[in-house]
Amino acid sequence: MKLFLDSAILKDIRDAMSWGIVDGVTTNPSLIKKAAADLAASADGEELNMESYIKQVLAAAGRMCPVSLEVAGRSADEMIEQGKILYERFDPVASNVVIKVPVSTVNSDGDGDPFDGIVAIEELSDEKIPVNATLVFTPEQALLAAKAGAEYVSPFVGRVDDRIRKTAGMDFEKSDYFPASGIVQDESHEMITDNGLISGIELVARTVDIFHQYELECEVIAASVRNSRQIRELASVGSDIATVPFSVLRDMINHPGTRSGVDAFSSDLVDDYLALFNVEESGE
Ligand code: G3P
């Protein structure tokens, strides 16, 4: 499974790239806002020059790592125009720009045309601009995006879990683990679902199944990932990619057993063994 970094913070991108295990980067308007706020709050109160900042992000990721940049408009025409602007302005930096388009742009008040996202995905894909269809909450939305030619779809794992927890009336922290096998109602013992899905992991699993069944050449980027156990589960259900916040990526490497093993092995090192690494001595 490929790992993308879900961040617009340049320092995080550079650090994560230096570990050699990151295959791409995803941004969205909320992550760009956070990066701008972080920069403004930094010691020198630097202001963000958006154009040059995005160019640095693309260069930091490098040629082999796709970077998703999201459109701001909500109508098909606006999204198509903005997708082309972003692609033409930024792809020359490192040939790695992917345009992120919401699968549907209808808002909570019901404003908008439900299929404008799909129309924009279709048009940009026809122009050979790679598209990542975002804000995917059902496998059928993913299927529509793939049929429209999206190169990637981004199911929002953690936000599906949030919706189930809210239905259940649970208090929770964003980073809390939510079981892939779902949860049941206290009294009835019936599964609590979001539109028939028992968890965000199930959303990814069903999407992967459908894409395999119909041999759709669209990669699944599991997004809205909240903790490292979810990455294990995403890998088990065959997600092509997981896009992961920096803190979760760092957490993936941690385990108390590893730490205490390091303590034990370090304290058991005997001088004769250490002497093997003393090149001067062993060469004598
Ligand atoms: O990639 C989508 C992601 O940034 C949203 O994550 O945790 O706000 O649901 P989250």
Can you put this structure into words, describing what you see?
- Helix 9 (228-236) links the parallel strand 7 (219-222) and strand 8.
- 47% of the residues lie in helices and 13% in strands.
- Strands 1-2-3-4-5-6-7-8 form an 8-stranded parallel β-barrel, surrounded by 6 helices.
- The protein has helices at 10-18, 29-41, 50-61, 76-94, 116-126, 139-147, 157-167, 200-213, 228-236, 246-251, 256-267, 271-275, 279-282; strands at 2-6, 24-26, 67-70, 97-102, 131-136, 152-155, 219-222, 241-244.
- The protein contains 13 helices and 8 strands.
- It is an alpha/beta fold and 284 residues long.
- The longest helix has 19 residues, at 76-94.
- The mean pLDDT is 96.
- Helix 1 (10-18) packs parallel to helix 3, helix 4 runs parallel beside helix 5 and helix 7 crosses helix 8.
- It binds SN-glycerol-3-phosphate (G3P).
- SN-glycerol-3-phosphate (G3P) is lined by residues 6, 26, 28, 31, 156, 158-159, 223-224, 226, 243.
